[in-house]
Design a protein that fits this description.
Blueprint (H helix, E strand, L loop, with lengths): L1 H25 L13 H7 L9 H5 L7 H15 L12 H14 L1 H9 L6 H5 L2 H6 L18 H4 E2 L9 E2 L46 E4 L4 E4 L8 E3 L2 E3 L5 H9 L25 H4 L10 H5 L9 E5 L5 E5 L2
Antiparallel strand pairs: 1-2, 3-4, 5-6, 7-8
Helix pairs in contact: 5-6
Length: about 325
């Protein structure tokens, strides 16, 4: 009889734990995670974001989705909450957690991921920080992490061993870090981006709501402040070609690009990592030519300069960036 009672007790305990686990992961977040003051700001943004129809666990995982690792991770969150060691109301994810979410982004955004893989943004730490050509010109320093390694948990000296002036001897301290992506999805995308809905707004594909009525889907992660700034709130830089001030597009995409593809202190076009165009294409947005994720420009010319057809064509076509293109068949 005693053995039966023990067995039943164990089975009841397992049933209660399993049931609680299922209920917790399927309940409305307002009744679970969002009751904690650290989570509530993120939850409030999520309710008006593009991902409002996606359950928290699909991006953040559950306590058991990653085995012992995720169990310890979630246990640590509970510990930090009850010991009140989190001072900021908004939780900050560490780099490992960011990369885990990055992997889950791929499940829904496969075409964007495929484009990113073809781009220059799909670099890892080794390709950036052990680039001998670059290191021969300049020693890596703290500001490198502003664009490459935004979510790295330490500083440049914790990342690299930079003793002496012989750049061939500089190393990344942790070999596991070498292959991690230096510019993951969340460098430019904030999952919980405010996008207030109207009665007409159903989804991002709802044609009844114009693009200009929505907040941009991109945002810059500011490493120093450990926060995001929406792309349309980023500053528009004044740019010069010699002594001549040139037109700079103010669309959110270009504002975002220019935060990393930035000029020198004189704001000269083409200096440092700047990619501001001059000449006939002056003032055109980055994304008018570059595919947002791959950066490819293969199809961009045809968008503004379509091929001549077999029929006589003569007309003026007004372009979104303000230029008029006249196409005449010879």
């Amino acid at each position: 009889m005693k053995k039966i009672l023990i067995t039943l007790s164990i089975l009841l305990f397992v049933a209660v734990i399993t049931g609680s686990y299922i209920v917790w992961n399927t309940s409305d977040p307002e009744n679970t995670c969002a009751r904690c003051h650290e989570i509530s700001p993120s939850h409030a943004r999520w309710k008006t974001a593009a991902h409002a129809g996606v359950r928290c666990t699909e991006c953040h995982g559950t306590a058991l989705s990653g085995g012992v690792h995720s169990l310890m991770d979630k246990a640590n969150m509970v510990y930090m909450h009850y010991t009140k060691k989190i001072q900021n109301e908004d939780i900050h994810l560490n780099e490992q957690q960011i990369l885990e979410i990055n992997d889950r982004c791929i499940a829904c955004h496969q075409s964007e991921y495929a484009g990113w893989l073809r781009s220059g943004h799909a670099v890892n730490y080794k390709e950036i920080f052990l680039d001998s050509a670059h290191n021969a010109m300049e020693k890596p320093y703290w500001d490198c992490l502003r664009c490459h390694g935004m979510f790295y948990d330490g500083n440049i000296n914790e990342l690299m061993k930079l003793d002496g002036d012989d750049y061939t001897q500089w190393k990344i301290r942790d070999e596991k870090q070498e292959m991690r992506p230096a510019i993951p999805c969340l460098s430019c995308h904030r999952m919980h981006t405010d996008n207030p809905r109207s009665e007409r707004y159903i989804s991002l594909n709802d044609s009844s709501r114009s693009v200009n009525e929505r907040n941009p889907m991109t945002a810059l992660y500011v490493r120093g402040e450990r926060m995001y700034l929406r792309s349309d709130m980023l500053p528009v830089a004044r740019m010069f070609d010699g002594d001549k001030e040139i037109a700079v597009p103010s669309d959110p995409g270009t504002r975002l690009c220019m935060q990393c593809h930035a000029p020198d202190f004189k704001h000269q076009a083409g200096s440092e990592d700047d990619r501001t165009v001059t000449g006939v294409h002056e003032g055109i947005s980055c994304i008018a030519c570059h595919q947002p994720h791959s950066g490819e420009t293969k199809a961009s010319c045809a968008q503004c300069h379509p091929s001549l057809s077999n029929e006589q064509i003569e007309g003026v076509f007004r372009q979104p960036h303000g230029y008029n293109v006249r196409i005449i068949k010879n």
